[in-house]
Amino acid sequence: MAENVKPRVRVPRDATAGEVIIIKTLISHPMESGQRKDGDGNLIPRSIINRFTCEFNGETVIDITLEPAISTNPYFEFQATVPETGAFEFTWYDDDGDVYTDTKEITVS
Amino acid sequence: MKKMLLTGSAVGIALAMMTAPVFADEDADLLINGEIEITVRTDAPPHMENVDTIYSGWVFRSTETQALEMDDFENPGMIFVDDAIEAWETVEGTEGKSCADCHGDPDGMAGVRATYPKWNEDAEEVRTIAMQVNGCRTEQMGAEAWKYDGGDMLNMEALLASVSRGIPVNVAIDGPAQSMWEKGKEIYYTRFGQLDLSCANCHEDNYGNYIRADHLSQGQINAFPTYRLKNAQLNGVQSRFKGCIRDTRGETFAVGSEEFIALELYVASRGNGLSVEGPSVRN
Amino acid sequence: MNFTRRDTLFMAIGSAVAAALPLRAFAAVEDDIAAFTGGAAVGTEGITLIAPEIAENGNTVPIEVSAPGAVAIMVLAAGNPTPAVATFTFGPLAAAQSAATRIRLAGTQDVIAIAKMPDGSFVRASQEVKVTIGGCGG
C-alpha cells in the first residue's frame, strides 16, 4: 500500500486569455513495478499510479496512462491554454483504488 | 561475472580509466530557483595538501542530473523537506515540545548545517548534525532518538540543509575537535578492503576520471543528504561512506560509529568554502 | 582464469536467455504498436522525442515528446521486460501536444514514441539511450 502520498502542482496564479501556461506536477509515490523481489525472493506486488488527468473547468487538458516504467515520484510537465478564470483539477488514480486530487485556481485577464 | 573480475587484477580493472564520452558540464554554475547561488568550485582550504581546487559533486554529474537540482519543484529531495516541515511543528516526547517551540521557523536555522560536525561543549564530544538532532529529541523534548540515517532523520537533515543553501561550509578543525579531525584524516588515507583502496585513491588522486562508467567526484559531502536516482530516496553521509568501504570489499565501520564521525568531520572540512547544497540530486 | 563446469553451465544458460529476451521483448513492442495503430502505416515526420544519449542511471531518465496536433502519443521502451511506458492523450485545452516525464530503462535500448494524428495517421520517432553501469556497486 502506498503511504505518505502527496501531490504537488505548480501553476501560475494568473495568465492572459490564450497564453501558454506551463504546468508541472510531482506526486510522492513508490511506483512499485511488480517486478522486484523482496529479501526472501518473493515478488513485491505491483502498486502504481496508473492514470493522471488534468482538467480545467471540466474540460480535458491531458489524460495520461502510466505504466510501471514511470519512475518513482512521477513527474509530468505539459502545457495548457485557458479561455477564462477558473480552476485546474488534477487527479491521480492509484492501483489500490485511492484517488488523490489537487486544485489550482487561475485568474485570466 | 564477479568471479571473473576477481581473478583478474582487481585493482587494475576497478581503476582502469576509460575514455568515456564527456557528458558532464564541468564548467556549469549552479543557481537554484533562479536565486540561490551555490559555490560549486573554489580554492581548497589551506589544510588540504594535495588539492588546489575543490568541487561539489554536482559538477561531475550529467546535464540532465544537474538540471534536477536547479529548481526545487523538480528536485525530488524536496518532497522530504516538506515531510520534515511537518515533523518540525509536531509536538513529541514527555516535555510536550516541538522543534518549533524552541527554534521558531526553520528558516531561523540558516547557517547551522554549515558548521557541522562540531564540538559540543556540554557533551564533550564532536557531534554530527544527526547527533545534535537526537540530542535535542532526547534531552530537550523527552522523545525517542531517531535511527541514524533513517527516514525521519534524513528528512530533518534535508530541511536543515535546505535553509542553509548557499552558505559556505565552515567546519572547525582546531581546538577540541582537532584530535577527531586527525583521526578522520588518518582513515581517509588508509587503504581498506580486498581492493586496497583509500578514500584518497579515488576521490583525491582520480576525481574527474571514470571508474567504469562512473565519473569520479571529489567525494565532497557539502550537498548531503542527497536524493539518488539509483534508489529514489534520500541518502545520508555515513551510509555513503559505508557503501564506499563495502565497494573496496572491506569490512565497514558502522553508521554512527566514532570512526565515521571522525571521517565525516574530516571530509566535511575538505569542503570548507563550498556551499551547503542539500538536498542534492545525484546518480 | 578457471571456469568450473558449474560456471560454464550458468554462462550457457545466461547466453540462451540473453538471446531469447530481445525476441520476446521485440514481439511485445510490435504487439503494443499494433494495438495503438491498428496496423496502420507509420510515418516519421512531425514528431520529436528528446531523451539523453547517455543516462547516468536507468532508474530516472528524463524524456520529452512532442507532436503538434496529435490526439495522443504512446511511449515505449523497447528493451524493458514490459515495453509500455505511458500514453499521453491531449484534450482541447492542451496548448501544445507535448509532455515531459521521467522513466525507467532496464538497460541500453531504444525509446520509441508514436503519435496518433487527428486524420487517423501515425508518426513515429525513436532514440537509443545508453544506460551506464556504475563503477561503485552499480
User: What share of the residues of chain C does DSSP label as strand, in percent?
Assistant: 35-45%
Domain count of chain A: the total is: 1
Distance between the termini of chain A: 43 Å
Poorly predicted ranges of chain A (pLDDT <50, ≥5 residues)? none
Number of helices of chain A: 0
The CATH homologous superfamily of chain C is termed: SoxY domain
Low confidence ranges of chain C: 5-20
Q: What would you note in describing this structure?
A:
The complex is a heterotrimer of chains A (109), B (283) and C (138). Chain A is mostly beta strands and 109 residues long. Chain A has a single domain (6-108), classed as Immunoglobulin-like (Sandwich). Helix content of chain A is 0%, strand content 50%. Chain A has no helices and 8 strands. In chain A, a hairpin with a 4-residue loop joins strand 7 and strand 8. The mean pLDDT of chain A is 94. In chain B, 34% of the residues lie in helices and 11% in strands. Chain B contains 11 helices and 11 strands. Chain B has helices at 2-7, 10-14, 63-68, 78-88, 99-103, 129-141, 151-162, 178-188, 199-203, 237-247, 258-269, and strands at residues 30-32, 36-38, 41-43, 53-55, 118-120, 125-127, 210-211, 214-215, 226-228, 233-235, 280-282. Chain B has a 3-stranded mixed beta sheet with strand order 10-9-11. In chain B, helix 4 crosses helix 7 and helix 8 crosses helix 11. The longest helix of chain B is centred in the middle third of the chain and has 13 residues, at 129-141. Chain B is globular. Residues 1-22 of chain B have low confidence and may be disordered. The relative contact order of chain C is 0.22. Chain C has a single domain (5-131), classed as Sandwich (Immunoglobulin-like). Chain C has one helix at residues 5-37, and strands at residues 42-43, 48-50, 54-55, 61-66, 72-77, 84-90, 94-103, 109-116, 122-131. Chain C contains 1 helix and 9 strands. Classes of the chains: A mainly beta (109), B alpha+beta (283), C alpha+beta (138). Strand 6 of chain A pairs antiparallel with strand 7 of chain C, so a sheet runs across the interface.
